[in-house]
Amino acid sequence: MSTSERRTSVRTGVVWDAVVARLEPNARVVDIGGGTGGFAVRLAQQGHAVTVVDPSPDALAALGRRADEAGVADLVTGVQGDVADLSEHITDDVDVVLCHGVLEVVPDPAAALRTIAGVLREGGLLSMLVAQRHAAVVARAMAGHFQQALALLDDPGYRSGATGRGRRYTADEVTALLADAGFTVETTQAVRVFADLVPGSLLDLEPGATAALVDLERAVAGRPEYLPLATQVHLLATH
Ligand SMILES: C[S@@+](CC[C@H](N)C(=O)[O-])C[C@H]1O[C@@H](n2cnc3c(N)ncnc32)[C@H](O)[C@@H]1O
């Protein structure tokens, strides 16, 4: 396993497991802000039809290459677009929407969630992954950036009407946003509780360390007491 594959498995293992456990065969999936297709191509390899909607032409080009190399180009569609105009690009109801690492950067998260709800079929599943504020405060403080940590502690995020770049949420905030858009949250998981604290060299050099860390991340993902320490929060919600 390469260094980047090791990092990916540690960072995304918990999210991947939760999503694939809920997919019906041949699901219709939309990956909003799916970027270069790390998730989309793996889902296509399992037979699901995935449309990635992303504003970045570079990301979409990389997605196309990755899908070709994996032999799943027929199941992966890249669309240059924004979550705000999702309903223009996605006209059929879909089974699953992935929104990973995007709610942090869209100008209007509440409107984005309403738009996502509009493309999901009744009972469809939303996989939501967002940056978590408490962990970001701890990370800044541990790096010696105490003023940044303090500023982040008091950052009201989207409620301030801030520029919208790099928001971080608490689990309660994102749960409330989802509820306001008519979603029912079914599971909430802690993601990357330890992954970002462990030196990369340890994973590179110590045999078995990556697998053991993945197991540890899995073991704490569902424990609420670890949620405030997680770099990201992952929620599965239905509409
Ligand atoms: C942090 S990356 C996350 C990529 C991928 N989903 C992941 O989890 O690794 C954020 C992605 O959102 C895309 N993005 C930014 N603004 C967006 C918007 N308004 N609507 C949809 N995607 C957006 C970016 O181009 C980028 O690919």
Summarize the structure.
The protein is an alpha/beta fold and 239 residues long. The protein is built from ten helices and seven strands.
Main attributes of the structure:
44% helix, 7-stranded mixed β-sheet, alpha/beta, 239 residues, globular, binds S-adenosylmethionine, 21% strand
How many individual helices?
10
CA-CA gap between termini: 38 Å
Rounded mean pLDDT is 92
Percent in helix = 40-55%
Q: What structural class do you assign from the helix and strand content?
A: alpha/beta
Unreliable spans? 158-164
Heterogens: S-adenosylmethionine
**What is the H-and-E element order?**
HEHEHEHEHEHHHEHHE
The largest β sheet comes out as: 7 strands, mixed
Major beta sheet, strand line-up = 3-2-1-4-5-7-6
Q: What kind of assembly state do the chains in view correspond to?
A: single chain
Rg on CA atoms, Å: 18 Å
Annotation, overall tally of beta strands? 7
Q: What is the global morphology? A: globular
Strand content: 15-25%
Describe this protein's structure:
By secondary structure, the protein is α/β, with parallel strands linked by helices. It is built from 10 helices and 7 strands. The chain has a 7-stranded mixed sheet with strand order 3-2-1-4-5-7-6, sandwiched between helices. Strand 2, helix 3 and strand 3 form a beta-alpha-beta unit. Helix 1 packs parallel to helix 10 and helix 2 packs parallel to helix 3. The longest helix is centred in the first third of the chain and has 20 residues.
